């Protein structure tokens, strides 16, 4: 979805309101250790994609499935907490960005380790030739 200043601001408001809905209003879905990593709102503000992540991937995906099934109820409570002309339709998605970021960081750390080992080997070879 296209990001504008307006959709970003509305997305932040929706995220904050959803946190309150999860904490206080939604009793039948146990959110556990999942968190909302971002909310993308469509330019017409009719649709919102909610990205979530957590410590355990399978547990987080189960929570997302439960929220998908209860999204009408979540939308109802969301409408009471935000002041928009139209409460957006919600679509909950698993956010893979933190995992990808962690994998990239580990690969970069491995590359740096290999580079340092190669540099130290070259220094040892240079000292042997002297």
Secondary-structure blueprint:
Blueprint (H helix, E strand, L loop, with lengths): L4 H21 L8 E8 L5 E8 L2 H13 L1 H11 L7 E6 L2 H33 L1
Parallel strand pairs: 2-3
Antiparallel strand pairs: 1-2
Number of strands: 3
Largest sheet: 3 strands, mixed
CATH topology of the largest domain: GMP Synthetase, Chain A, domain 3
* Count of discrete structural domains: 2
Low-confidence stretches: none
| CATH homology-level superfamily of the largest domain | K homology (KH) domain
Indicate the CATH architecture of the largest domain: 2-Layer Sandwich
State the name of the first-level CATH class of the largest domain.
Answer: Alpha Beta
User: What is the ordering of alpha helices and beta strands?
Assistant: HEEHHEH
Helix content: 55-70%
- Which range does the strand content fall in? 15-25%
The DSSP helix count reads 4
Strand order of the largest sheet: 1-2-3
Q: What does the radius of gyration come to? A: 22 Å
- Report mean pLDDT, rounded to a whole number: 85
What is the first-to-last residue Cα distance?
Answer: 62 Å
Global shape? elongated
Class computed from helices, strands and strand pairing: alpha+beta
List keywords for this structure.
4 helices, 3-stranded mixed β-sheet, about 130 residues, 3 strands, alpha+beta, 2 domains, GMP Synthetase, Chain A, domain 3
Note down, in words, how this protein is organized.
- With 130 residues, the protein is α+β, with helices and mostly antiparallel strands.
- It has 2 domains: 91 residues, K homology (KH) domain (GMP Synthetase, Chain A, domain 3, 2-Layer Sandwich); 34 residues.
- Strands 1-2-3 form a 3-stranded mixed beta sheet.
- α1 packs across α3.
- The longest helix has 33 residues.
- The chain is elongated.
- The termini are far apart.
């Amino acid at each position: 979805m296209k990001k504008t200043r307006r959709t970003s601001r509305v997305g932040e408001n929706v995220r904050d309101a959803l946190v309150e809905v999860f904490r206080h209003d939604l009793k039948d879905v146990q959110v556990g250790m999942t968190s909302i990593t971002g909310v993308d709102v469509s330019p017409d503000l009719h649709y919102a994609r909610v990205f979530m992540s957590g410590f355990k991937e399978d547990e987080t995906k189960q929570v997302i499935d439960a929220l998908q099934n209860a999204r009408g109820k979540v939308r109802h409570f969301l409408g009471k907490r935000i002041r928009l002309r139209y409460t957006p339709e919600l679509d909950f998605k698993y956010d893979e960005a933190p995992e990808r970021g962690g994998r990239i960081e580990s690969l970069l750390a491995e590359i740096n380790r290999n580079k340092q080992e190669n540099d130290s080997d070259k220094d040892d070879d240079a000292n042997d030739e002297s």
